[in-house]
């Protein structure tokens, strides 16, 4: 591969931006497609599929053979709240391939004993997210039920374009949340992206079942995300 092309690909990967390397199998030439850049012809939908699924594949388009190599950042899940739901969600998320971290300034909840082997931040979300910024390949789930902890994190997730933003709470609780977010300048369009009540509607009741519903909704959002430029 051309050194300049490799440098461009590595730069995209380092910045946690998606890119697809298209190789013409007839002549070995390579083209780097960054998310947001349109690909002409019948190859376009195949490249878009690679951006959406993260799967590499050999394809045929316009009478030529190509290999599409997808380079998507590893998906991250940031959970606001070291609660029982988070304890159940942590091992499930790891199995599903998510890099997970839990943030909660309440040191009685955010303990290594309760979250063994989990990246844990016993700090306020705004402090942690300043040092570890969110991005479009990150999901955020706010589950503390405490506006002082959840609200700033939700705004940060919406501002960063996270592929999933969810918040625990009833419709009445969410209505109050909407009013608070509006007061700090979050637009109605952005607020509409918040999944609340959080998780797929599977009739979940226990923390473990709620965790399953949340993770399923996150996976669905990741695989159905709007590819930039499509």
From TrEMBL:
InterPro entries: MoCofactor_Util/Proc, XdhC_Rossmann_dom. Residues 77-218 form the XdhC Rossmann domain. This is XdhC family protein. It comes from Hoeflea prorocentri.
